[in-house]
Write a structure and sequence with these properties.
By secondary structure, the chain is of the alpha+beta class. It is built from 11 helices and 10 strands.
Length: 305
């Protein structure tokens, strides 16, 4: 097998990356080059991108900042968007790294993974509820994407990536984030590579919880831990807090609590209460007491995946 960077820069891999980026139809970056404009001479652009990386002359552009409204009124999500050029290269890296890391992730992780998603996460929660895991540590990580420690993330990557040129490339992308964040921390929401980096960074959390006999359900940086009684949930609270500290992360105290199905809790926009679960979409509240989630393929279901 050729070194990882050469795999990234294979023309077929770059072409597939460009096709995926074009398919997503995102907005231009700081250079204002749109997908339509990139498409006019995409073959030449791919070749220039490949040559610049191989020659060492490639350097990522600054990120474009854009705020989009959250579902909660008055709250905003800050996206930091790379240029199309950088998105294509990041997507090419993603396509090479995903097959390396994906088999190592645990089945309690449902976000941004092939074959996993919100429906599977909801089904896992319902299955555990039927096994009397009715108490919940409902956890929220304080500013996760802004708090990822670059040195620790790179250490996790180094454990599996021997190609230092590829590690340097990822390090350069992380450094661009510093223009809008505390140096040495943060991964940008809006980058094709960030979901994978988030899962790599939080994989030790999954592993630690499973090793301790807990039942977590995680979707990127949102997670719950299901337990059979309140005492176990309170113990999980303390242990998760220590695990997060080792990752340079902490709870958002106002959004982290011990709850239960009897009291009710909301996870990823789905409300669980007693034997029912529901969500609101376009001012319609849809509720079910079914144990299966196949009906969630309804057109009314929000697109989390």
């Amino acid at each position: 097998m050729p070194p990882l960077l050469e795999q990234v820069l294979e023309r077929s891999n770059l072409r597939l990356a460009w096709e995926k980026v074009a398919e997503n139809r995102g907005i231009p970056g700081v250079d204002r080059v749109s997908i339509a404009r990139w498409r006019r001479n995409w073959e030449e652009r791919l070749e220039n991108l490949r040559t610049s990386v191989l020659s060492g002359s490639y350097h990522p552009s600054p990120l474009r900042i854009r705020a989009i409204p959250k579902s909660t009124p008055g709250q905003w999500r800050i996206l930091r968007i790379p240029t199309v050029n950088d998105r294509v290269l990041q997507r090419a890296v993603l396509q090479v790294l995903s097959p390396i890391f994906e088999p190592r992730f645990l089945d309690c992780s449902f976000g941004y993974r092939p074959g996993f998603g919100l429906r599977q996460a909801v089904q896992r929660i319902l299955d555990l509820r039927e096994k009397d895991y009715t108490w919940v540590l409902d956890a929220d990580i304080d500013a996760f994407f802004d708090s990822v420690n670059h040195a620790l993330l790179l250490r996790f990557l180094e454990d599996s990536i021997e190609d230092h040129r590829l590690l340097q490339l990822i390090s350069e992308w992380l450094a661009v984030r510093n223009a809008v964040n505390k140096p040495g921390t943060g991964i940008p929401m809006g980058s094709p590579l960030s979901p994978l980096l988030a899962n790599i960074y939080l994989h030790p959390l999954d592993t630690a919880l499973i090793q301790r006999g807990y039942h977590p359900v995680r979707y990127a940086d949102d997670f719950i831990v299901l337990c059979r009684n309140r005492d176990t949930a309170e113990r999980a609270y303390i242990q998760v807090e220590a695990i997060l500290a080792d990752l340079f992360l902490k709870y958002e105290p106002d959004k982290t609590r011990i709850s239960s199905f009897e009291e009710g809790f909301t996870f990823l926009g789905v409300r669980f209460l007693d034997k029912t679960f529901s969500f609101t979409y376009q001012e319609k509240t849809i509720e079910s007491d079914d144990r299966q989630v196949s009906w969630l393929y309804s057109d009314y279901f929000p697109d989390y995946e």
